[in-house]
Amino acid sequence: MSFGTNDGVVANPRSILGIFRSGIGTPTLVYGFPTSRFPAVARNDTVTAAAMGILHRIDRRREPRRDADLTVTVWGIDTRGERFVQHARAREISRSGALLSGLDLELRSGDVLGVLYAGKKARYRVIWVQEFDEPLKMQAAIHRIEPDLCPWEELLAQENVSPT
Description:
With 164 residues, this protein is mostly beta strands. It folds into 2 domains: 1-58, no CATH class; 70-159, Thrombin, subunit H, CATH 2.40.10.220. The protein has helices at 39-42, 153-160; strands spanning 3-4, 10-11, 29-30, 33-34, 70-77, 83-91, 97-103, 112-117, 120-131, 138-144. The strands form 3 sheets. Strands 5-6-7-10-9-8 form a 6-stranded antiparallel beta barrel. A two-stranded antiparallel sheet has the order 1-2.
């Protein structure tokens, strides 16, 4: 949503998109800069703030992630209040979280899931959810709930052992 005036000035500091249009349909400001500095915007092309070079990726993770492709069992309660158990893929794993893919159920941020890997289980909170183009397939970022132990701790520990 953007807020416009008839003089073509549009302001929405919370917008992440970076392209604003005035009420008359002409883009006039991009994050406070005139569109003459951004020819693609003046041509009415789609330009993101990242393409303009004003966004920097901020990684809020406290620990590094490891690329992996683990088959895990996930269980919990979906958005309709129904219990589920299904297999998923855990990718980008760390001691505190992972990225689950191949989910065919509806979840939302804040939901609590159980994850089982190699006979070890832990509870995780859903941080964000993204739906894919494939029907009923979702991806979810999860964060481990303390005091549960990381089910793939041994796998991560193997990576930290240096050869002698």
